[in-house]
Protein: Tagatose 1,6-diphosphate aldolase
Organism: Salinicoccus hispanicus
Amino acid sequence: MKNLDKFRDENGKISALAIDQRGALRRMMGEDTPSEALGEFKRLVSENLTEHASAILLDPEYGWDAADHRYSECGLLMAYEQTGYDKQTPGRLPDLIPDCSVHSLKARGADGIKLLVYIDVDESPDINRQKEAFIERVGSECLGEDIPFFLEILTYDANIEDVKSREFAEVKPRKVIGAMREYSKKKYNVDVLKVEVPVNMNYVEGFSDTSILTQEEAAKHFKEQSSVSDIPFIFLSAGVSPELFQNTLKFAKEAGSDFNGILCGRATWSGATKEYQMKGTAAAERWLKETGVSNINNINKNI
């Protein structure tokens, strides 16, 4: 296990901020948003929120200026994958940013490397073997450079279009837990797993009128998730509201989950995108200083 101190807060938890979105951020801010504006927005997030985070996740395409403007005690995690995937090719296969390597990202100041891969544990063995080999290669590269490797897993089902649907919610625990079980294996050299919570909380009793799980059943899934991995794992927010993410973290702790922190993006800063788009830089900065700081501090209280 590599040294993760640069990513931990004073309590030993990872309280990291994610702003490595590229295509998703452009969709939030408007498809005609220029690259310079994406970079400026990331800088605003970094300048105003990293004093309250143990680390920040950025991307090499638009994030280096934001990295330079982060709080001095804040660790730097850099994304290594290209954003999105080829929708014409089955399997949501990953690819790397063409002009980057682990060596070059580390040389420029990255303290850790993040790789996002979409995983369906029930997809064809041929597709999953490609992903396993891909992750092994990146893990070996990080091992050779002696830099922490964060693997982000987003689960899906090749036969279910909407991952927010009731249909996917019924299979999500098996998808999330199965993927964690596989990629915790030593051959991948993963140091931290960045994963979804094992259930869709919008279908849990007490969180919704359309529940498919009791709170007791949901708690069992959180406990099982903790039991399948012997490496640190942290939760991503998956674009849910700040309130739902905070309540989810509370539920996870009460359920006995041994999660090691969070790497949270949109649940912290998403409201600032509209301010930036409609009113400009100063309005976005005001929102981040007030609502953004409040969001991140409330989330940090629950890890």
Remarks:
- The chain has a mean pLDDT of 96.
